[in-house]
Write a structure and sequence with these properties.
It is built from 21 helices and 26 strands. With 724 residues, it is an alpha+beta fold. The chain has 2 domains: 268 residues, 7-stranded beta/alpha barrel (Alpha-Beta Barrel); 260 residues, Beta-galactosidase, Chain A, domain 5, CATH 2.70.98. Strands 15, 16, 17, 18, 19, 20, 21, 22, 23, 24, 25 and 26 form a 12-stranded antiparallel beta sheet that branches. Strands 1, 2, 3, 8 and 9 form a 5-stranded parallel beta sheet that branches.
Length: 724
């Protein structure tokens, strides 16, 4: 029998920038290596493989033998290598200049290292907007894979999805394959015979059809239960055996082969879209729950098959609205990208400039900018990695443009840095960078420690998620079940329902609170404390005061607490060559006959709880417990947080003895391995019962110092060791 269907098995292997080495290694041992072990023995089968840049860079260092195996299979025509943007950004999230640069850089890398002739690409998270066509085509790409969901939303019916289409933008064309959602759910969870029969049904109705499975390679070993299922229980061998046994009518081939031997089905213009589940995750939580409820009600209705093609969720870019912290990373990335573009226009070049571009590209890795079934933005190490690379890029641009400032440098600038049509303030010297939002309570929302490329305010607040109702209902499925991560709920620890807490404001620094005088510490920890003033997130006016060696940002607001008209003025001062901020508060309009409970909240991110080498210490240097400790201190004038692993020593001092609360902020969040409590930040909140003087005024002066002496000493010692 002549070939009547081509089956394209397209695998996407990826680990994000910032993921732990042991996670890379586990995925290699559980998925990537054993898949290749099995695949190599089936000489008649071919696949298209995309391996992301972060993963290939790691493999080149830790398992170069794997790359050699890939190279041999590429030369033998068994594997087609798909390209794409080097560091796996969502293409719609980055400027066209960076789309082109990332794709071309990775194409060259794959040619040099694997000898691959790159014609097609993997579209990260299948997030699509039509304008990508011209950028992708300009980068030299001929075809890509999206989901059949995209095509259905363009009006195509099921019987018209058994091939590929051509699309166009600005006169450039691109071929696009619809990846089958049904095959995504079948493989590797259904019996191989059932999958082959599904393909047989397609071939019977559509001779010379092309069917595409395009999904994560981690489904073959890394997803819960799949290693045993695929390898110990032999599912993958049985699947390949079934494909080989039906080779008289079923050819397992590459996307390149399909493009070369099968004409397109026609032309199509696709709507802005991503895979179906992603559109649901992008919805606001209330709408997401309503969407799920409506689907459950309708799927048993006899009219549902006719309605379903017209139902879709939200728009990927709204993750930057759903999670303001994602917008903070995005806007910081755009600051660096624009600066790099301007430096290039001004003639910058050389090794430092090239590395600055690579660091920018690494900071565009998509995984920490959104959240669904995967940990994403809820994983602190991924957010920290994004900021690490973006801050490193800024540092390198200073060197590349000969703008490495002397010790006498300090600067402030005002712009709409986070794209909310309101102005923010950037305060910087050669050691620190701070971003403040006058329109959001005068909060400090980013604090970069340049020497260690660390943002101490890469925080995340606690907010409702649609899956929290499942937390309250309890887990479904055993931990060893082999099922799609979209269908099974696993708990990684007990009692998570009791840890669901939600914040009413961002977990940042210089957050100004008024509480009841007798408020209990537990109410503050839980987020249930009533805000008695309008200062925590209110609009502050900003002024800059400049001297040659220091700059002060002065923030003021006329508001009220308990209905009492008050004015708060806070000044944040940074001197040249200083690792500390001087912070001054003045409250005016206080009644002479009452005490008001006032607190200033600070948050510190990237300093995990529960480790002995990360702890609080008092004014005398004595340890007060690890950074997850809840402290209710009284009559103190200083508190420190030391992270020996990071090499960061944070010390807060104030000139009026105060009470101090400390506690960790943890989110109940899900990833592909299950739902767990994840540490996000440490709160330090000095608070006072304040009474005005004869003029109704009260003030306090604070100092926030971020010392990286330990990190610098360690770096110097390592450099000496390498040199010797």
């Amino acid at each position: 029998m002549s070939t009547s269907i081509r089956f394209c098995l397209v695998l996407h292997n990826h680990q994000p920038i910032g993921n732990f080495d042991h996670v890379f290694e586990a995925a290699y041992q559980e998925s990537y290596r054993p898949f290749l072990d099995v695949f190599e023995t089936y000489e008649a089968l071919s696949v298209s493989l995309h391996t992301s840049g972060p993963l290939l860079e790691w493999l080149e260092v830790h398992h170069p033998e794997y790359l050699e195996r890939l190279s041999r299979l590429v030369q033998g025509g068994r594997i087609e290598i798909l390209g794409g943007p080097f560091y796996e950004p969502i293409l719609t999230m980055i400027p066209p200049r960076d789309r082109l640069g990332q794709i071309q850089m990775y194409t060259q890398w794959l040619q040099d290292r694997l000898g691959a002739s790159v014609r097609g690409m993997w579209m990260p998270e299948r997030v699509w907007e039509q304008s990508l066509t011209s950028d992708v085509g300009a980068a030299g790409i001929q075809y890509t894979v999206l989901d059949d969901f995209h095509f259905r939303n363009a009006g195509l019916s099921e019987e018209r999805l058994n091939g590929y289409y051509v699309t166009e933008d600005d006169g450039r064309t691109l071929s696009i394959f619809p990846g089958s959602e049904r095959l995504r759910y079948y493989i590797p969870f259904r019996d191989p015979h059932e999958i082959v029969e599904h393909l047989r049904g397609i071939s019977a109705q559509h001779p010379q059809a092309v069917a595409v499975f395009g999904d994560d390679g981690e489904k073959f070993g890394t997803w819960p239960g799949t290693h045993k299922h695929c390898y110990q229980d032999g599912w993958l061998r049985r699947f390949f055996d079934a494909l080989a046994a039906n080779s008289d009518w079923l050819t397992t081939t590459t996307l390149a082969d399909a493009v070369d031997h099968v004409p397109p089905l026609g032309k199509i213009y696709l709507p802005d879209c991503s895979y179906r589940e992603m559109t649901e995750w992008a919805l606001p939580v209330t709408q997401q729950l309503a969407y799920e409820s409506a689907i459950h009600e309708l799927e048993h209705d006899q009219r549902w098959p006719r309605i379903k093609p017209f139902v879709r969720g939200g728009f990927w870019r709204n993750f930057k609205v759903k999670y303001p912290e994602a917008n903070e990373m995005y806007s910081r990335m755009m600051m660096v990208s624009r600066r790099l573009e301007q430096a290039e226009r001004n003639g910058a070049g050389g090794e430092d400039f090239a590395w600055a571009r690579r660091e920018l590209y690494r900071g565009q890795c998509n995984c920490s900018y959104w959240h669904g079934a995967f940990g994403g933005i809820y994983l602190p190490h991924l957010r920290n990695a994004v900021y690490n690379h973006l801050i490193a890029a800024d540092n390198l641009l200073d060197k590349a443009t000969r703008n490495g400032h002397s010790n006498g440098h300090v600067e402030a600038s005002v712009d709409d840095y986070n794209f909310d049509a309101r102005q923010e303030v950037r305060l910087a010297n050669n050691k620190l960078v701070a971003l403040l939002a006058p329109a959001m309570g005068g909060q400090m929302y980013e604090l970069d420690v340049r020497a260690i490329c660390h943002n101490a305010l890469a925080t995340l607040c606690r907010r409702p998620e649609a899956y929290h109702r499942k937390v309250l209902a309890g887990p479904s499925g055993r931990g060893d079940d082999c099922a799609s991560i979209h269908e099974c709920v696993r708990f990684k620890q007990d009692g998570l329902d009791r840890l669901l807490r939600y914040d009413r404001y961002p977990r940042k620094s210089l957050v100004d609170h008024f509480y009841d005088n007798d408020i209990h510490f537990s109410a503050v920890v839980s987020g249930e404390a009533q805000e008695r003033g309008d200062f925590a997130s209110g609009l502050y006016e900003a002024k800059l005061r400049r001297r040659p060696d220091c700059i002060q940002v002065q923030l003021s607001k006329q508001g009220n607490a308990w209905g009492i008209p008050l004015k708060i003025t806070k000044g944040v001062t940074l001197e040249s060559d200083s690792s500390a901020f001087q912070i001054a508060y003045l409250i005016e309009g206080l009644p002479p006959d009452a005490l008001l409970h006032f607190g200033v909240e600070f948050n510190f991110a990237g300093m995990p709880a529960g480790a002995e080498d990360r702890y609080f210490y008092n004014g005398q240097g004595a340890s007060l417990g690890h950074l997850g400790t809840e402290l209710d201190l009284h009559d103190v004038s200083a508190l420190g947080l030391l992270d020996r692993w990071l090499g960061l020593d944070v010390r807060l001092e104030w000139n009026r003895p105060s009470s101090v609360w400390t506690f960790p902020v943890g989110t109940v969040s899900q990833s592909e391995s299950g739902i767990e409590l994840v540490h996000q930040s440490v709160v330090v909140q000095p608070h006072w019962l304040v009474r005005g003087d004869a003029d109704g005024r009260w003030s306090v002066a604070m100092r926030l110092c971020l010392d990286v002496g330990r990190a610098e000493q360690r770096t110097q010692a390592e450099a000496v060791a390498v040199a010797s």
